[in-house]
């Protein structure tokens, strides 16, 4: 007689409990592959777990076979259930906190590196015309430390010459500064908008052939088009030069190139830096007044002030921010005032605002006194004129009184 093996109820129950798990496992295997973000998160989680596990191993006795190793670690090891067992971080909480802190720093560094790579990829796509951007340069951008764009107009030939006679090098000196120090200086201007090019455009063509210090934009010049000009300037500059910083300065401001380079070099390792003299002026709703803001209602109740932003005479932004403007320039809103527009583009981002008061010194005697005290100014102008009053006549005097000296820029470590 053949006996049937006894029915094992425990085995059946185990199989019954295991069945949903098997089905769940099959369902998980059938899902779509993990996304990039999920894979990155899994990698970070594995990295953290590895650090914690490595910390656990470090806390184990050096010699598990004897009491001597455990005694060195100051831990009692017992094989019984009632023995004192060491838990992770129980006797060395500082070690665990240090591991967690280092892990947090590593994750932050990884996040910044990924953000930088994504931004560089987006810039390259924009430069090549892929990814929604507009290609404005057909050759790879030149490496530079800083690009200084001097905002100018068709009627400002005398202003430009006053700068060429003071702080803007001419000819071969300009090329040498660019090649050896990575400091690029260009007068920034568009076109007149006249069909086929008018007399203003022809005069500028002649000046450019003589000086070779212009950056020509695909932009129709106009006082109420400064915000558009700023967007196009950064877009064109990013496509032409791969620089650490991009500066915008007006053509009636005195600038010390060495001091500017020295100040910016201190922020070179920081991402998303916005440097200038930060202010928060009133939003002017009255029509007909200077700096009137037609969209004043967007800033809240009447009498409100703008958010903090750099004054428009001179400011600098880092590479990431210039790239952001270049990529998104078609959808960046333009307010009436150019400096407000730039501040609005950056206010919602993770940006470090650097309030550098040396970039808005007054003209002599203010900048002269500071120079004698060893605090040479980056830039000088008159607040009452939003630039140097009568700059064509006074720029030489200001340069003599407040200038850093011609050789200063060559001694700056960049």
Automatic annotation (TrEMBL):
Taken from the UniProt entry, a GO cellular component term is: Golgi membrane
| Any one GO MF annotation of this record | galactosyltransferase activity
Tell where it localizes: Golgi apparatus membrane
Specify the enzyme's EC class, one word.
transferase
The species is: Panicum virgatum (Blackwell switchgrass)
Family matches, as Gene3D superfamilies: 3.90.550.50
Q: How does it sit in the membrane?
A: Single-pass type II membrane protein
Q: Which domain of life is it from?
A: Eukaryota
Q: In which pathway does it act?
A: Protein modification; protein glycosylation
Positions of the DUF4094 domain: 35-126
> Where the protein is mainly located, per its record?
Golgi
Family named by the database record: Belongs to the glycosyltransferase 31 family.
Listed InterPro entries? DUF4094 (IPR025298), Glyco_trans_31 (IPR002659)
- For this UniProt entry, which segments traverse the membrane? 38-59
Q: Which cofactor does it need?
A: Mn(2+)
Q: What is this protein called?
A: Hexosyltransferase
This entry's Enzyme Commission designation comes to 2.4.1.-
Q: Which UniProt keywords apply?
A: Glycosyltransferase, Golgi apparatus, Manganese, Membrane, Signal-anchor, Transferase, Transmembrane, Transmembrane helix
């Amino acid at each position: 007689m053949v006996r049937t093996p006894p029915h094992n109820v425990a085995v059946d129950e185990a199989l019954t409990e295991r069945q949903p798990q098997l089905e769940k496992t099959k369902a998980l295997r059938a899902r779509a592959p993990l996304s990039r973000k999920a894979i990155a998160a899994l990698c970070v989680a594995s990295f953290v777990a590895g650090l914690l596990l490595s910390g656990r191993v470090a806390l184990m006795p050096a010699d598990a076979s004897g009491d001597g190793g455990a005694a060195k670690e100051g831990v009692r090891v017992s094989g019984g259930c009632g023995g004192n067992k060491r838990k992770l971080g129980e006797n060395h909480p500082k070690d665990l906190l240090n591991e967690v802190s280092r892990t947090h720093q590593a994750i932050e560094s990884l996040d910044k590196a990924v953000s930088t790579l994504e931004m560089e990829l987006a810039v390259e796509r924009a430069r090549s015309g892929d990814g929604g951007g507009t290609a404005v340069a057909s050759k790879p951008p030149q490496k530079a430390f800083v690009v200084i764009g001097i905002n100018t107009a068709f009627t400002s030939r005398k202003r430009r010459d006053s700068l060429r006679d003071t702080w803007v090098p001419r000819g071969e000196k300009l090329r040498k500064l660019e090649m050896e120090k990575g400091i690029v200086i260009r007068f920034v201007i568009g076109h007149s908008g006249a069909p086929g090019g008018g007399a203003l455009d022809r005069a500028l063509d002649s000046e450019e052939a003589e000086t070779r210090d212009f950056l020509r934009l695909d932009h129709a010049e106009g006082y109420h088009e400064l915000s558009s000009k700023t967007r196009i300037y950064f877009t064109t500059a990013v496509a032409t030069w791969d620089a650490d910083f991009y500066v915008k300065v007006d053509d009636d401001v005195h600038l010390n190139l060495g001091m500017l380079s020295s100040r910016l070099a201190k922020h070179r390792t920081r991402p998303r830096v916005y440097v200038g003299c930060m202010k928060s002026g009133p939003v002017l709703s009255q029509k007909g007044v200077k700096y009137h803001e037609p969209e004043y209602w967007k800033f809240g109740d009447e009498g409100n002030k703008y958010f903090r932003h750099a004054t428009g005479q001179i400011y600098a932004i880092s590479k990431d921010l210039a790239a952001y403007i270049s990529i998104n320039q078609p959808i960046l809103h333009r307010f009436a005032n150019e400096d407000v527009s730039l501040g609005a583009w950056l206010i919602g981002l993770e940006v470090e605002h650097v309030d550098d008061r040396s970039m808005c010194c007054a003209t002599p005697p203010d900048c002269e006194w500071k120079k004698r005290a060893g605090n040479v100014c980056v830039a000088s102008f008159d607040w009452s004129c939003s630039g140097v009053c009568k700059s064509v006549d006074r720029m030489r005097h200001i340069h003599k009184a407040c200038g850093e000296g011609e050789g200063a820029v060559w001694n700056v470590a960049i």
